[in-house]
Amino acid sequence: MKTTTRWSPAALRGANNEGILGLIVLFLIIGMTAVNPDFFSFGTFFSIIRASVVPMIFALGVLIVIVSGGIDVSFPAIAIFSAYTTVVLMQTSGMDFGVLGVLGVALVLGALLGLINGGLIARFKLPTLIVTLGTQGIFKGVLLAYVGSRYIAELPASMANFSTMDLVSIGDGSTVASLHVLIVPVVILCLLVHIMLRRTMFGRGIYAIGGDTEAARRAGFSVVRIQLALYALVGALAAFGGVLHVTLTRSANPQDLLGTELDIIAAVVLGGASIFGGRGSVLGTVLGVLLIQLINNSLILMGIPSAWQRTAVGLLLVIGVGIQALGARRASKKVIVPRETVVPS
Amino acid sequence: MSEQKSNETRQIALQTARSTNQRIDNVVSSSLARFHVSHGVGRMILLTLLAFVIFTIAAPQVFLNPLNLQNIAITSPEIGLLALAVMVALLTGGIDLSVVAIANLTTITISTLYSTIAATDEGLADSLGPVIVLVGFVVGLFGGFINGLLVSKVGITPILATLGTMQIFNGIAIVWTGGETLYGAPAMLNTVGTGAIAGIPLLFVVFIAVAVIIAVIINKTALGSTILLQGANPVAAKFSGIRTTRTLMSTYLISGALAALAGILIISRNPTASADYGSSYVLLVIVIAILGGTNPTGGFGTVLGVVLATLTLQIVSSGFNIVRLSSYEYAIAQGVILIGVMVIDQVTRNRQRSAVLKQRKLKVQLQAKDSNQ
For B341-363, what is each residue's pLDDT tens digit? Predict the structure, then answer.
């Protein structure tokens, strides 16, 4: 394959069409501003970011699983299980762990639940969709039946304080637009996951087993160890998202989040990750999540009933993936077989 | 010199004959093993009986009460048909996540049409019952057609195509109903919903009849064979001259038709329609299809297995109710049953494979001894 120079169109397009996605996001912003000048404000910008915080964390986890060639539908159950259980633990023990303590307990819980997924998948080589479908039911059931099904409105003081902490507040006249402090860990996590996927042996291993498990095994990657580690990591990420969700909504509802798994998967796939594994990037995922939030926000601003949101996201998914599929089909018809494939030495 | 050579060639010939023989042996035994494991029907019968016996022992008066058994027979059909719809898609190596959304579109169509006509003339609305139901069915079929179009013509991966259409159909249903529950359905549906033949609810009879038709389509028709081949080996299917596009289109049409029928049964049982009915069914029906022995990667599945799996899960659900376990515990049971069955499958398959390997090793050793002598 020819290497492209840095600013050629192919390079701007990105390996997974990130460039095109970025353009669509840009056009949407310009279009919305033209339709409704109020759109282009710090208020809108910050509220889109605030709405993206939790989906973004989930999407990072889903991205890692999808790159490894799997599908995880249990992460919302893990997220709310870890976050709610931690809150219940604090309430029953009467102790306040502090923000870091809460995160620590929740992350350990999430990683353990993720390890159950990873163990079943790696040890018994079961299809990931089926395993996580089963564990989703188990996690959800155990949480609601044995931990609690009560809505908790009173969060421990440390979490409650944290939930109203803003990074920047920009007052323009009567309204004040605030950027929530939680954007900081989300950005850091995006960078960390990006570095992990691109620059570490573990990350390369995830791409490798997503591309071809058998080839990865023969190349010397320990598939079992990578799968265990990656599902534990995804569990921890889910737990992190769960804690952020509880913090942002200032309440712990064990019925929350469940059922959002397909929306997140749609965002990640829109971001260019291949459902067959081996392809996908953090940048694309970030753009995918932002695009969906942007569209939801635009629909409201344009006065379209929020009931259309589901249809819009579905249409977006079908059109986005459909164009890719048609392109792939056309490309496969145009394949030119090289005359000389083996170069004699 | 020449004698030694001929001796050598003879031995080589003997060895190749032996190894071919052995290879054929292995192929036969391993394919037999695979057939036995994924067959699933025997195992399903056992599981169904087990569930039945457990709850009969736990609460004989309530569980064996005809009312309870009838209740199981009334609630199973809609779930069973949705599971069959998913199974048909699974057979080709795809999946259909949009079945529940399609069923809801059907119920909403029927309810809306009936209420609109009944607002002016109730008698006319009831006499137009068959037409209204047919329109509802066609709407569901159209949903399946869209799925088929996206999967076969556009070439989108089934899981993504149906994930998208699920959102679209569900969104349309929400907008249409305004998120509220609609009331009203033709009287003829009510007679189906409450009727019974010899104590067996009509709904259940319909379910069994449709299941038999699907079983005949899959096992006895050319379409069924192409569907199975498509799932077992898409490349081989293509090179055997099977028109992939047409096969996939038929598959999703059947899936849509089954979902629409499920919708008709839902509104027969209870003359209401809403956009978010059965939101927990999406995962449940996949669990049932897999539990019934359908291979999640395509190529194998039996209608009987899926019917039995439906009954098992409904028995467990009703039994849990009777022994006062919550729906949350039922969710746990679903997960444990699904993963348990898959793990047991995998372990037995591995054991069989290692047994075959051991046998092969033994044969090689014997062979080595033979040639040494």
Answer: 888 878 877 787 788 888 888 88
Please tell me the distance in Å from A324's CA to the nearest CA on chain B. 8
CA–CA distance, B276 with B2 (Å, rounded to integer): 84
User: What confidence score (pLDDT) does residue B266 get?
Assistant: 92
Which percentage of chain B shows pLDDT scores above 70?
Answer: 94
Task: Decide the pairing of beta strands B182-183 and B196-197.
Answer: unpaired
Decide which of B2 and B64 is more confident: B64
CATH (domain of A170): 1.10.3470
Model confidence pLDDT, tens digit, residues A300-319: 777 777 778 888 888 888 88
Q: Which long-range contacts (CB under 8 A, 24 or more apart) does B338-341 make?
A: B338/A130, B338/A133, B338/A134, B338/A137, B338/B287, B338/B290, B338/B291, B339/A120, B339/A126, B339/A130, B339/A131, B339/A134, B339/A135, B339/A138, B341/B43, B341/B47, B341/B291
- Beta strand B272-273 with A175-180: parallel, antiparallel or unpaired? unpaired
Asked whether residue A5 is domain-assigned, the answer is no
User: What is the identity of the amino acid at B72?
Assistant: I
Domains of chain B: 35-356 (1.10.3470)
**Residue A328 forms part of a structural domain:** no
pLDDT at A266: 85
H helix intervals, chain B:
2-39, 41-58, 60-63, 66-91, 99-120, 122-127, 129-148, 158-177, 187-194, 202-220, 222-232, 234-239, 244-269, 281-291, 303-322, 327-372
**Chain B CB contacts of A136 below 8 Å:** 283, 335
Mean pLDDT, rounded, of chain B: 85
Sign of CA dihedral B274, B279, B284, B290: positive
Confidence (pLDDT) at A78: 95
Give me the number of domains chain A comprises.
1
Per-residue pLDDT at A68: 93
Q: Which residue has the tokens 């798994």?
A: A261
User: Which of A16-20, A57-61, A125-129, B95-99 bottoms out in mean pLDDT, i.e. has the lowest?
Assistant: A16-20
A134–B339 CB contact, under 8 Å: yes
Mutate to test the interface with A, among B105, B328, B347 (most CBs of A within 10 A): B328
Contact B163 A326 (CB under 8 A): no
